[in-house]
Design brief:
The protein is globular. It starts with about 35 loop residues before the first helix and ends with a helix. It has about 300 residues and is mainly α. It is built from twelve helices and no strands. The longest helix is centred in the middle third of the chain and has 31 residues. It has a single domain, classed as Ribonucleotide Reductase, subunit A (Orthogonal Bundle), CATH 1.10.620. Keywords: Hydrolase. It comes from Mycobacterium asiaticum. Pfam families: Metal_hydrol.
């Protein structure tokens, strides 16, 4: 097993069992901006299926982890990710009630992820099976880099506030973003602990970044094409406009600057964002506050 220095900043502490009420959230929750609405709505399509595979890969790698603090952080990471998947799945149900059936897209995504992040072929010998696990972990670490970057973006940008976006949806995005920032180092540290190959890590980002953006753009096109209330097509210039208004992260940030930072040999996620910023929002978040109160009431019974 490789000798690596583990950075424990960026590991999760516990799960927050938040609840959301979507009864008052309109279809275009960014007012008069279906493009920005659906670009962000793609996260509800991508994350439930993706996070199930994240959980599976980390669980399989956990038997190879012998650092006590790292091992202890795996359980709350899995709990957080499972709750994220559930929260976004509920939004998909809300979209279906508003006339957008996302199942054809999520079914295609699920089949793709089952191939790339699922179990290895049965005929693989043990060395290839171990490599397959390393590669899956590296892919998940690369994707966690994007989710942490998006989490930092939604916590620090006020464009959606200025646009008077739906407060319930903003709280979902910022609660999830804050927890992604909070546990941003976990998968990377597990990968470094059980494998640590820079070549595999760099290749995973090289392959994952364009695929992630491709699925994101395809999801936005799908949502806009199936939105019964609009006759508007997806356009790159609309993405650039929304980025200038700070309603979306720009394509250059997603396609170039974030992957390039990750590809540095010295990269570690702890330098990517501020854990205290995430904790501060989680202390402020209305749904997180309500979850703490429910837990307190349950403890008193």
């Amino acid at each position: 097993m490789p000798e690596v220095a583990l950075h424990h900043d960026g590991h999760p502490k516990f799960r927050r069992m938040v609840r959301f009420d979507w009864s008052e959230t309109p279809l275009h929750w960014v007012p008069d901006d279906p493009f920005s609405t659906h670009m962000i709505n793609v996260l509800h399509l991508l994350l439930p299926e993706g996070e199930r595979h994240f959980i599976k890969a980390v669980l399989e790698a956990s038997s190879l982890v012998d650092d006590p603090e790292l091992e202890a952080a795996i359980k709350p990471f899995i709990q957080q990710e499972s709750w994220h998947a559930w929260a976004h799945q509920v939004v998909l149900d809300h979209l279906a009630e508003q006339g957008i059936d996302t199942k054809p897209y999520t079914d295609r995504l699920g089949k793709t992820l089952s191939f790339s992040l699922g179990d290895p072929p049965r005929y693989f010998p043990p060395p290839l099976r171990r490599w397959w696990l390393y590669r899956r972990l590296a892919d998940v670490a690369a994707l966690e880099h994007f989710t942490a970057m998006l989490g930092e973006w939604v916590l620090t940008n006020q464009g959606l506030d200025y646009a008077h976006a739906d407060p319930m949806m903003l709280d979902l995005l910022r609660w999830h973003g804050a927890e992604e920032v909070e546990h941003r180092s976990l998968v990377f540290d597990v990968y470094q602990h059980v494998c640590g190959s820079y070549a595999i890590r760099a290749f995973s980002m090289f392959m994952t970044a364009p695929l992630f953006i491709g699925w994101w753009v395809a999801g936005a096109r799908y949502l806009m094409n199936h939105d019964p209330t609009i006759d508007q097509k997806w356009r790159w210039r609309d993405w650039m406009r929304a980025a200038r208004q700070y309603r979306l992260p720009g394509p250059w940030k997603l396609l170039v600057t974030s992957p390039v930072r990750y590809m540095r040999p010295s990269h570690h996620p702890s330098a990517e964002a501020d854990t205290q910023m995430a904790i501060d929002y989680l202390n402020y978040s209305p749904v997180a506050k309500a979850a703490r109160e429910r837990a307190r009431q349950a403890a008193l019974r």
